[in-house]
Amino acid sequence: MELRHLHYLVTLGETLHFGRAAERLHISQPPLSRQIALLEEELGVGLFDRTSRTVKLTAAGEGFLQDAKEILASVERAKRNAISANLGHRGSLSLGFMFAAAFSIAPAILRAYTTEYPEVHLHVGEAVPSLLIQDLRESRLDVGLMYPPGEMAGMETLTVFEEPLVAALPLNHPLSGSDDPIDAVDLKDEQFLITRREASPYFHDTIINHCKTEGFVPKTFLETNYQHTLITFVGQGLGVALVHRSMQTSLPTNVKFRPLRNPPTVKLNATWNSRNRNPCTDTFVQLAAKLGPTMHPGE
């Protein structure tokens, strides 16, 4: 029994006329009659009662017709699913993101992706950039939303978002009374709170290099993995920090954000392993690249 036999059966069962069924199937009537007879012989039951004028389904034929329709529908569904999976419209995707992305574009991109691709099972986790790279290398993640990883063999990366840094000051700081831009050098005598280089070389070096460009080396007092911790300690009067502009959306108490003149900018990239063959990675990266540049959190 082949799928074509089921097509023959369904077409004849719907038309109850060998001539019309053969015409719809684009074959001649004698081969259709032979194939139906062979199918009945294989099953050992009669599917149709034939007279010179009429064709009727037997009781066995009625039941087999419904089963055949369900089988053919399942085959078509399997075809659509295979095509959809190959296009990245269904399947699963494992995504990692760094903490700062939670305050910029990650929530909006995740909402948009789950809306556009509801049949993709999305597993999302947070980690520092250094751990995200390790997970991508070892294929525990399909894609990461993170800082540019630098030149790394086997990694593909695409910038999907970029934003400036701002100064985070205690609310009682002498420079907290205005919304005008300041220069980073205005903070040269302050204690700096900064992200650990081991956790994020890109972000750490961006801050240090900008301060050096401004003519000073920051006096670091505290290092941590997460910017939200920096913001918390700034609010407690333990120092100042340069953070993503989008961190303003965290609405911390006792913290004043001031824009910087000629601020350094940080990039947020979609990063994946070049060996990754998951088509859902492509659909996610394409959507992130389209949506990310339209967003301006923290403005």
Automatic annotation (TrEMBL):
GO terms for molecular function: DNA binding; DNA-binding transcription factor activity. This is Transcriptional regulator, LysR family. Belongs to the LysR transcriptional regulatory family. It comes from the Bacteria. Gene3D superfamilies: Periplasmic binding protein-like II, Winged helix-like DNA-binding domain superfamily/Winged helix DNA-binding domain. Keywords: DNA-binding, Transcription, Transcription regulation. One of its GO terms (cellular component) is protein-DNA complex. It comes from Paraburkholderia phymatum (strain DSM 17167 / CIP 108236 / LMG 21445 / STM815) (Burkholderia phymatum). Residues 1-58 form the HTH lysR-type domain. PROSITE patterns: HTH_LYSR.
